[in-house]
Design goal:
This protein is of the alpha/beta class. The chain is built from 8 helices and 11 strands.
Length: about 270
């Protein structure tokens, strides 16, 4: 059996309970977790289950809100070279996220953006899938969905060689944290149910992300490139694993093989 099979029950229970109380527009569910933890797999299964029950469901990844490569190139030239790499706060089109949430609460066809990681760029509008609004449930997944900013003191020391060597003055990480605190929080405030797939430690993330990379039809990153890529995510991933468990509506703790070792939701607890 797929290890993440056991994650479905507590996540479903938390969402179902929230749906029973929800009034007015789609229920927005945030699904957070480190790279390779199974967020998109869980979202797809939840969409299938709730869809089979008669609900209209839309799935959106925060990855699909990445700024186009040209925009990130411009940011890198104007502000800091590290902005070229997608992922950290500051590399997403948050205004687009708000427009999509609003559109999914309205009526008519809604195009959902798609980002092609193989070419590191957003697909043209013509390639975006279309869903019919209004929907009852939005499953919004992504590695930093629902994340909160760090305290300023936590930003002082670099967490890895990338920050030490390429952000020695802390300018990039301070700006990312500022954007997370200001630009991202209003979008995350629209989340009614927060689910966290919690990795046992950051040390497993490289293997999990490497497995994802190997499964791509045209893998673009070798080991060195992948290590550098993941370093952009390390600070906030560690912070999320420390800070979010205490407030998540549904906490699903995983072992190194993505097996569920504990699950606590609004309506049930197993472990």
């Amino acid at each position: 059996m797929d290890p993440l099979h056991d994650a479905h029950t507590p996540a479903h229970a938390a969402i179902a309970r929230a749906l029973s109380r929800h009034r007015g527009g789609p229920l927005i569910v945030g699904i957070a977790g480190a790279q390779g933890s199974g967020k998109s797999t869980l979202a797809a299964r939840l969409a299938q289950t709730f869809g089979a029950g008669g609900l209209r469901v839309a799935c959106l990844s925060i990855d699909d809100l990445y700024l186009p490569r040209a925009d990130r190139l411009a940011l890198a030239a104007a502000e800091h070279p590290l902005w070229i790499t997608r992922g950290p706060p500051g590399t997403h089109d948050i205004a687009l996220g708000h427009r999509l949430f609003d559109a999914l609460a309205g009526t008519g066809p809604v195009r959902l953006p798609r980002f092609d990681k193989a070419v590191d760029d957003r697909l043209p509008d013509s390639a975006w899938p279309v869903v019919a609004a209004p929907v009852d449930l939005i499953l919004f997944e992504g590695w930093l969905v629902g994340a909160r900013p760090q305290d300023a003191v936590a930003l002082a020391a670099p967490v890895n060689a990338l920050e030490r060597d390429e952000d020695a003055d802390g300018r990039w990480r301070r700006r990312a944290n500022q954007l997370l605190a200001t630009l991202y929080q209003p979008l995350f405030a629209r989340i009614a149910v927060q689910i966290l797939l919690a990795a046992p430690a950051f040390s497993v993330v490289h293997r999990w992300r490497a497995e994802q990379e190997a499964a791509l039809p045209h893998s673009a990153m070798d080991t060195a490139a992948l290590t550098r890529f993941i370093a952009h995510y390390e600070r906030l991933t560690r912070h999320i694993l420390t800070e979010m468990p205490a407030r998540a509506d549904c906490l699903i703790r995983l072992d190194a093989n993505r097996r569920v070792v504990e699950a606590v939701s609004l309506s049930c607890s197993t472990g």
